[in-house]
Amino acid sequence: MKHKFLFLAALALAAPLVGQAQQKTKVKVKPATAASSSTNAESAIKEADIKRDLFALAGDHFRGREGGTLDELKASVWLADQIRATGMLPAGDDGTYFQWFHLQRTRLTKASTLRIGSHEIKLNQDGAVTAPTNASVNAPLVYVGTGSPAELAKVDVKGKAVAVQIAGAPTDGISYRRYVFGKFAGQAGELTKAGAVAVVFVSDAPSQALYDHWSHVYERGRYSLPGVASTRVVSTPPVMWLPASAASWVQQPGQQLIANLQVESFQYPSVNIVAKMPGTDAQLKNEYVLFSTHQDHDGVRAPIAGDSIYNGADDNATGCAALLAIMRAFKQQPARRSALFVYQGSEERGLIGSTYFSAHPTVPQSSIVAVLNAEMMGRNAPDSAALLGSTPPHMNSSDLVKMALAANQAGPKFKLDTEWDKPTHPEGWYFRSDHLPYARLGIPAIMYTSLLHVDYHTPRDEPQRIDYNKLLHMTQWVYLTGWAVANRTAPPAREPGFKLER
């Protein structure tokens, strides 16, 4: 009841749903029979249903469903109503479809200021501070080129603000984005250790494209669950990122950097949506196959080509629509084990909903026998996909992987890209979705995806760009795997000695 006022606020934004999302649905569970353990209901998964649900969820009405906003809550109420209509039972808190948790957000206040010489930098417009920090700096600015040892040998950086030109390319297999972001910690850390009181990175031509696409993420600050170290208020030398247009004047000698940065930290709610279909077997119904996805995306941000709503059709309305379709199949034909469906909130804020649910599940943690995570399943070549968690060291259940591969062969027969699951892949994709917290707990977990594309985290990720026939086949693949897991007497075996590389 402590979150009742928040729930009512969300309901007020979705007036047609009032009184519906919380209704308990009576589900007639068929008795266990030989047929019920072998005959699936794949035919209940329909492309038209998936397309309808995806267009609704990824339309402008929900304004990009940013985690921790009323838009995420509004979309979550809509999803709960669709879930209720499938016949799934509530499995959240207090007999509802919802499990509430808090985000801790730490960001710079609007009163924070930054000036370099005669140039006033409007934060999050003319430049970004890469991490929230309390800092008061009034120091001479020195330009050190790319910050090579030879260039630094000519300058005493102690007590100074240091401007560095971003240059070069990764040589160790990581992506260019991770290479640049790594400088904000690595190179900046070396300079502050040498006595710099602030570090200013200036984009070159290649990194300007990265600045245009990603610098807006710093406006939000940092998010975590309350009490986690990453959101504590700190006082460290500030690290700033400027566009390439600043390169000409940043190099001018005799300039002073004056910064007054102030941090605020506060909490607000996000939500997981949880539903279940009870199993038909007297013993196995106490175990769960967990179907996982996330409902949030990036919300409303700086416009690109006149569009400011990051709709997140592929990321991850595809997973949301897929789970609704899988629910309809389990309603038509329940399995021996119970099916648990979890829409995890605030994934884009750092896997926060899945981190919370995996630690505080609404069913016994030990009863979760497998996690099948649906993440971005509707783009790229129609005959290709990937199964993350299928390659060591990411594979924590070869048994579960074999079942998923068999389901692929029995169903869509995708050509599987294994490169993205390797620890050497530059994107580190395995570590960026909601299966990860479960895998870290040792629960067999895999991720179904059609991988990144050029519209990833842009306003161009819209419903009309989805390959719905491919999404249908991806959904069938997830379902067939889950159906196999839910009906086999033995749960998927866990891999002995499983240990992630990071």
TrEMBL record:
Keywords: Signal
InterPro entries membership: M28_fam (IPR045175), PA_dom_sf (IPR046450), Peptidase_M28 (IPR007484)
Chain coiled-coil ranges: none
Pfam annotation, one family: Peptidase_M28
GO MF annotations, alphabetized: metalloexopeptidase activity
Key word Ribosomal protein present: no
Signal sequence interval, chain numbering: 1-21
Biological process per Gene Ontology, one example term: proteolysis
Protein name in UniProt: M28 family peptidase
Domain Peptidase M28, first and last residues per copy: 272-478
